[in-house]
């Protein structure tokens, strides 16, 4: 009895038994403090996740609108978050919050110095875990370009350029979005230009762009354990920042709805956990996973 010391978990089990705890209870007690799995048990593990971010429209302007037939078809065949919210105004801080769990001290749409932040973010976490990441940016003059603006391209909608721990080479042009979807990274963001993201042009313009550019991937994702997320940075400042967010793909229960209140931090945490990451950037550490819509 007084020989080699018991391990921590065996000591817990022995103490539990001494106090009359059941075997199952002892096992649970022994597990307290043990390392938790990197992948959230309630979430699926998609092979690929593509996130498309649109601009400045409230939930009611898109969901149920005849101007957005394709987004509403994704809603019907996938999942609809009926209480999804942006965090602030204007645009740029929301993109940083969605990508890194913080506005990184940015509160406006001005053009900051590229690579001026080194804090954790979705891309840096993926890279550190040996997983793949890329962004596909419509109107970007060339792969890795850090220009502030060019035609209808605006860097304020591309938060990855803020971080020194995200290689600029992972920022690609929209023409580089692969046609062989098996070559997509584990997680990627797709950002339309100022017209096609509905900022300068209509809901119908953005909806048609999404269908023309992402329908083939969405159809493929439905049978290849992959996921499409369509969301917005912020609303039109008239609806309490309530935004449309739709998820579609094989891991998603068709026609499902969640009325739980979620925001960009919750989406970031969910993207991290869907990817099997053991870390969470910024406010994603205390956020919640999106649940109740998954097939597994």
List low-confidence stretches: 1-38
Q: What global shape is seen? A: globular
Number of strands: 13
Strand content: 15-25%
Proportion of helical residues: 25-40%
Largest sheet: 8 strands, mixed
Q: What's the order of the H and E elements?
A: HHEHHEEHHEEEEEHEEEEEH
How many helical stretches?
Answer: 8
The Rg value, from CA coordinates, equals 21 Å
- Return the average pLDDT rounded to an integer: 89
First-last Cα distance: 46 Å
Q: Kindly name the structural category.
A: alpha/beta
Strand order of the largest sheet: 7-4-8-1-9-11-2-12
Structural description of this entry:
This protein has helices at residues 8-18, 23-31, 59-62, 69-77, 91-100, 122-128, 203-221, 264-274; strands at 48-54, 79-81, 84-85, 133-137, 149-150, 153-154, 171-173, 187-191, 226-232, 242-243, 246-249, 256-258, 262-263. It is globular. It is α/β, with parallel strands linked by helices and 296 residues long. Helix content is 27%, strand content 16%. The strands form 3 sheets. Strands 7-4-8-1-9-11-2-12 form an 8-stranded mixed sheet. The protein has a 3-stranded mixed sheet with strand order 10-3-13.
């Amino acid at each position: 009895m007084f020989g080699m010391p018991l391990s921590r978990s065996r000591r817990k089990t022995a103490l539990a038994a001494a106090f009359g705890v059941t075997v199952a209870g002892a096992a649970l007690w022994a597990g307290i403090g043990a390392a938790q799995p990197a992948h959230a048990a309630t979430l699926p593990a998609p092979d690929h996740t593509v996130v498309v971010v649109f601009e400045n429209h409230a939930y009611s302007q898109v969901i149920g609108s005849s101007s957005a037939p394709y987004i509403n078809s994704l809603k019907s065949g996938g999942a609809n978050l009926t209480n999804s919210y942006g965090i602030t105004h204007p645009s740029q801080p929301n993109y940083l919050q969605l990508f890194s769990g913080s506005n990184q001290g940015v509160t406006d749409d001005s053009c900051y110095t590229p690579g001026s932040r080194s804090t954790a973010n979705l891309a840096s976490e993926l890279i550190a875990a040996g997983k793949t990441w890329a962004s596909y940016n419509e109107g970007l003059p060339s792969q890795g370009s850090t220009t502030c603006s060019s035609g209808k391209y605006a860097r304020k909608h591309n938060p990855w350029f803020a971080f020194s721990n995200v290689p600029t080479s992972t920022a690609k042009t929209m023409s580089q979005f692969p046609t062989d979807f098996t070559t997509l990274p584990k997680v990627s963001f797709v950002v339309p230009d100022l017209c096609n993201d509905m900022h300068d042009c209509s809901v119908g313009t953005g909806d048609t762009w999404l269908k023309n550019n992402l329908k083939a991937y969405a159809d493929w994702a439905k049978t290849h354990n992959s996921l499409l997320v369509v969301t917005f940075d912020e609303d039109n400042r008239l609806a309490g920042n309530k935004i449309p967010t739709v998820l579609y793909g094989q891991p998603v229960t068709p026609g499902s709805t969640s009325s739980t209140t979620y925001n960009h931090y919750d989406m970031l945490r969910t993207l991290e956990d869907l990817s099997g990451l053991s870390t969470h950037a910024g406010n994603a550490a205390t956020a919640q996973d999106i649940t109740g819509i998954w097939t597994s």
